[in-house]
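Input protein
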Amino acid sequence: MRSIHFPYPGGGTTCDALYMGVPVVTLSGETLGSRFGASLLVNIGAEALVAHTEEEYISLAVSLAGDRQTLDALHTGLRGMLAQSPVMDAAGYGAAVGAAYEQVWSIYEQHGEQLKSIDDHDDSIYKDSKALRGRLFALLRAEQYAAAQELAENAMAHGAAEDMLRYLHTYAIERQGDLPRAMALAEAYLKTGGNALRHEFMRLRAAVAYRMGDVRAAEYYRCAYEEEPSDPALYSSFLLAKNAQDVDDEELFPGALYLR
């Protein structure tokens, strides 16, 4: 059975190859991760190297391997194509990111008054779970993590105990850098056997473990991915966590065949 993360093309390694004049044939898939190679090739003007089916992928690779003239042209021209493309346009990328930041700030300014008008002493909010969640989300979006933590703890002290409140409380603590406490809270929730936000807490636990340098991070990401295989980002995080450990290829890619 084909796993959800196939195909899984390169990112940085593809850029390295292209910059050294080595052509890359890629198979474009259905997810963001599986289209990364295609995105790079299209942006440098080499969309002819993108295949959309496994049969086309094999045919394209075999055809290119036997076309010495095209290979010579690619070896000579790929670096220039990459250097002149949006992929290496640092100034353009910086301007686009700057514009995005300005847009985020503009949205924040439009909603800033809503945050300033919050009355933290209005105990009635603790009885209205929808209003409580709305206030917590507003504080988290504004990166007012300490205020969000305090609000969540006050709500729990008044008897509020829904799973989303526990998750937002743990997230606010994690964002402030208190990783050991965030880990303890995530594990405490998972031990209760609660299912409503089990996957979210599993993801959070894995992310906290990775930030802490905990050797269990890869295992946590693997468990989260196995419960939610439709999320390829978890597989990427698993590989990243594994790569931070001293493991051999056979452990990292079990069952794979290697040419020796």
